[in-house]
């Protein structure tokens, strides 16, 4: 038997537990799933500012949570949808991916088409905002051969089969990667536009709050947008933001090929071929875990450097869990990790921001070191929203 557990912020019903509450600090089973969804069929759980989606093996998408802009996609603007509902308007399409922004949503079909819904206050749906201020039902965009979709706070990015990247929405920190004819960054892009100056063929894209990342076929990571917390892997004292894609130095990852990447609002996590995991960006909630022995800082202002180090770490550090990491999910400022080698039972570790109990340890105290969370079964799938978390377990 398989069971879905949820915890963390639930002020909009985003945990799908059937009720609204300020927080749920311990993993709690989601009992009342719709008749047309069974736990063993769940393949993905993703969350945004206050809403969540479950994607099944049959390609059906279910939503719950904050819905004032129609971002749940059930055809209404009910403030809180406290139980998972089938997304309307996608009948006949097999969905293979979904992502949530702060108040907008995007989904990808097996045929390479893209649907969007929710708030369009900053053009984040890829549609003119004066024509479509919001929509509570999915709208199909004029894009084809898409293989990866992601959503930031108020911007959106996709990658296509031929390795190109398109972005749209809010771009005030360079997260769209577009400049105008006068060389200035584009602060609002209401329709999908290709990102120029990308080196290599892109396999997938991931959005932070106001930063965009791309993983190439060669295993390189490209990044552009906000760098306030060092999330571009550059010293934020020197680079506040950057509009053109930067290649993060390969030696930061031990010279290894990056095989997957995840991002929170202001931090990034990647895995490399050896199985090692690297983290960088904002650190003050504990979302990067404990740091390695600090490298010599050439800055003469050591006091300022120490303050910076506690706030963020712009050089990727290897995350040491003493366990093989199978997968990671990032909330806005917290993380979940599945650990366990092949043939072993799996475990859940969480760390970072915990104001809403999103780390699942029964408290609301930030967790600065990855800590094991007990679950009554073998962990299969993890997922996270801004301040909430999910785990699918196969019961013992």
Automatic annotation (TrEMBL):
Naturally occurring in which organism (per UniProt): Cherax quadricarinatus
Keywords for this protein:
Repeat
Q: Which PANTHER family match?
A: BTK-BINDING PROTEIN-RELATED, INHIBITOR OF BRUTON TYROSINE KINASE
One Pfam family in the UniProt entry: WD40_RLD
Question: What Gene3D superfamilies does its record include?
Answer: Regulator of chromosome condensation 1/beta-lactamase-inhibitor protein II
Segment forming the signal sequence: none
Residues annotated as domain RCC1-like? 4-391
InterPro entries from the entry? RCC1-like_dom (IPR058923), RCC1/BLIP-II (IPR009091), Reg_chr_condens (IPR000408), Signaling_Regulatory_Domain (IPR051625)
Question: In which ranges do the RCC repeats occur?
Answer: 2-58, 59-111, 112-162, 163-218, 219-274, 275-341, 346-395
Please give the name of this protein. RCC1-like domain-containing protein
**Disulfide bond found in the keyword field:** no
């Amino acid at each position: 038997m398989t069971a879905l557990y949820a915890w963390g912020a639930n002020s909009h019903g985003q945990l799908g537990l059937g009720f609204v509450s300020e927080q749920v600090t311990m993993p709690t089973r989601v009992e009342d799933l719709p008749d047309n969804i069974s736990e063993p069929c769940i393949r993905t759980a993703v969350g945004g500012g206050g809403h969540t989606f479950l994607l099944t093996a049959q390609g059906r998408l279910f939503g719950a949570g904050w819905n004032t802009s129609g971002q749940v996609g059930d055809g209404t603007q009910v403030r809180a949808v406290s139980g998972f509902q089938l997304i309307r308007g996608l009948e006949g399409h097999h969905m293979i991916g979904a992502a949530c922004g702060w108040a907008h949503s995007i989904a990808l079909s097996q045929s390479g088409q893209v649907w969007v819904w929710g708030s369009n206050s900053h053009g984040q749906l890829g549609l003119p905002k004066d024509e479509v201020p919001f929509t509570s039902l999915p709208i199909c965009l004029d894009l084809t051969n898409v293989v990866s979709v992601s959503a930031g706070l108020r911007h959106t990015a996709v990658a296509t089969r031929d390795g190109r990247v398109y972005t749209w929405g809010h771009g005030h920190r360079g997260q769209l990667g577009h400049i105008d004819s006068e060389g200035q960054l584009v602060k609002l892009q209401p329709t999908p536009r290709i990102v120029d100056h990308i080196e290599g063929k892109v396999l997938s894209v991931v959005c932070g709050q106001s930063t965009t990342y791309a993983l190439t076929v060669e295993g390189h990571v490209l990044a552009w947008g906000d760098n306030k917390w060092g999330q571009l892997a550059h010293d934020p004292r020197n680079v506040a933001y950057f509009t053109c894609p930067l290649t993060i130095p390969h030696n930061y990852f031990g010279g290894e090929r990056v095989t997957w990447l995840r991002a929170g609002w202001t931090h990034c996590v990647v895995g490399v071929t050896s199985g090692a995991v690297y983290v960088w960006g904002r650190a003050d909630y504990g979302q990067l875990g404990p740091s390695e022995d600090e490298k010599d800082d050439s800055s003469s202002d050591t006091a300022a450097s120490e303050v910076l180090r506690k706030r963020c770490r712009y050089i990727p550090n290897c995350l040491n869990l003493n366990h093989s990491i199978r997968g990671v999910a990032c909330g806005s400022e917290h993380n979940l990790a599945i650990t366990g080698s092949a043939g072993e039972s799996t475990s859940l570790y969480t760390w970072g921001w915990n104001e809403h109990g999103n780390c699942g340890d029964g408290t609301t105290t930030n967790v600065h070191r990855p800590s094991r969370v007990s679950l009554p079964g073998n962990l299969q799938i993890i997922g996270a929203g801004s301040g909430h978390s999910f785990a699918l377990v196969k019961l013992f």
